Amino acid sequence: MKRIIYISMAAAFMISCKSSKHAASDSNNPGSVTVKHGNELSTALPPGNLPEVKSPSDQLADKIVRTALGFSGTRYRYGGTTKKGMDCSGLVYVSFGDNEISMERSSSQMATQGDEIPLRKVKKGDLLFFTTGNNKRRINHVGLVVSVDGDDIQFIHSTTSRGVLVSSLSEGYWNYAFNQARRIL
Predict the structure, then answer these.
(1) pLDDT at 34 over 70
(2) Whole-angstrom Cα distance, residue 113 to residue 135?
(3) Residue 115 in this model has a pLDDT that exceeds 70
(4) CA neighbours within 13 Å on the CB side: how many for 50?
(5) Rg value, the chain, Cα
(6) C-alpha dihedral sign at 144, 76, 81, 67
(7) Is 59 helix (H, G, I), strand (E, B) or coil?
(8) pTM of the entire structure?
(9) What's the DSSP call for residue 160?
(10) Do 146 and 102 touch, CB atoms closer than 8 A?
(11) Strand ranges of the sheet holding 178-183, from the earlier edge strand across to the other edge
């Protein structure tokens, strides 16, 4: 409905006062039209080019993921929570904590927070839990979903061998070790 109103307003401005108007394209919004009517400027976006409106939880997920990505390349350190070194649960703990969401400190404790969700419903900001040790019933690793593109789920985590990095759940090792997904937001 808003799209129709914006387009109608733009058309009305262009038709009503031909001599006092100026139309130009907005480089920030390709396909948009900026109309000058006297001293007033109005921008009309064509259908399909309206800005995406995100829910508050999606906006918070973006902030949490940005915080986590800021630690990319940080070396692994058991119990670490700083750029000098960090473990997997430390990364999640700090990323959520810096955005005012309290989390447990260990991956096994984090796996009791929020709601378990099916993998097909995972979205940015959700947590993935893994069993990478000999005991396949004990969760000992966590990652934060940074993007979902169809079946490709990318997550950021800290590994003992490579530190903080983004991996894909479709990688054989992580797919095999996957245990559950949880939504905190």
Answers:
(1) no
(2) 21
(3) yes
(4) 11
(5) 23
(6) negative
(7) helix
(8) 0.73
(9) T
(10) no
(11) 115-117, 178-183, 127-130, 141-149, 152-159, 163-168
